[in-house]
Amino acid sequence: MSRNTVSRSLHDLxxxxxxxxxxxxAVALNTAAGEAADSAGTGRVTNVGWDRWTPVxxxxxAAYLAGSGVQLVGNVxxxxxxxxxxxxxxxxxxxxxxxxxxxxxxxxxxxxxxAQRDVPIESGTQSGTTTPQDVAAAQRQLRVLQWVVPALxxxxxxxxxxxxxxxxxxxVKKGMLRRLAS
Length: 182
Known about the structure:
about 180 residues; mainly alpha; about 80% helix; elongated
């Protein structure tokens, strides 16, 4: 088995940034923006924060996907012969697709909010009484999605830890023997 240090690093650092950044934005940015002097300032702060995060997030996701792809190719034999690896890979792929979809949809909603630079809002995900209806509707969905993305990427961290455990020599041996027995 060859070393996959670069692909593992891309995978792990990308996933860590994707998870950590979205969690930090949900916990801090979206609520902290509400501390601006006025509701239009809240919208401005939120928009600037998310606009600055977006290219970093896109880079993190690209790194994660690149690392994941190389790891998948590097472990194709284990997928075939070690019981449990294909199932784990399917779960991880499904979670990745769901996290990508939630992230992409969040970005579309965020762009709807950001289309009005000084939109009056209470926080990044809470509209005010003078918030335009289309922005308020986007914020209601973002209020949920701000937690969905870190939940999905956090689940990916757990599945990735499980995948790493599957690569222990004793686990590879057990998985291969189970595959032969079935």
